[in-house]
Design brief:
Elements: H1 2-33, H2 38-47, H3 51-63, H4 67-78, H5 80-86, H6 89-92, H7 99-104, H8 108-114, H9 125-151, H10 165-181
Helix pairs in contact: 1-3, 1-9, 2-9, 3-4
Length: 182
């Protein structure tokens, strides 16, 4: 039963893997170009694990933002988690030892995979949700670390005519938006 649950969680997480490896790599490169190494990328992805806030965090780190500014910004950027996490209360209420991690690891993408409440036949529901969350975070951490390592050997985006990561992020955003609408 456990191997079936692991397989089911892995297969369901594959679409997130594709996005997280790419976007995590972008974050790692951006962080490296801001002067922060691979340990920063790994630590931020392990302990913060909020992709959009991590991108914003690079600007906060390099801009010398105050603690108060950082706290307020974090609340504003991640406020959506409060609203969609409410719908997961029933699914997580009996999760036992998995519950704290599943609450921490509830990202937009993980939520989109779990919000229907369905668990594959024969899979342990709590273990399935836990593993899906764990796989998703592992993809983000892997992408971030890979990006940091690539960022140490790739030329700076400024050499390509990009003065900041904002141009790159805007391009990614518009490309994704066009794909959704087409």
């Amino acid at each position: 039963m456990k191997i079936q649950t692991v397989k089911a969680a892995f297969y369901k997480s594959i679409p997130v893997m594709a996005g997280y490896l790419v976007l995590g790599t972008g974050f790692g490169i951006l962080l490296r170009n801001a002067g922060y190494g691979v340990l920063w990328a790994a630590a931020m992805s392990l302990f913060i694990y909020a992709g959009s806030m991590q991108y914003v965090g690079v600007g906060l780190l390099t801009g010398g933002a105050s603690v108060l500014t950082t706290v307020i910004t974090t609340i504003m950027v991640n406020a959506r988690h409060l609203f969609y996490s409410i719908s997961m209360v029933d699914q997580y209420k009996d999760a036992g030892k998995y519950k704290p991690y599943m609450i921490f690891a509830l990202t937009d993408e993980t939520y989109s995979l779990l919000c229907d409440g369905r668990t594959p036949h024969g899979a342990d529901p709590d273990l399935f949700r836990f593993l899906l969350s764990l796989f998703n975070q592992s993809y983000w951490v892997t992408g971030s670390v890979l990006g940091s390592l690539l960022g140490s050997v790739l030329p700076s985006p400024a050499l390509w005519g990009c003065r900041s990561g904002g141009a790159i992020l805007s391009s990614v955003f518009w490309r994704e938006l066009c794909c959704i609408w087409s």
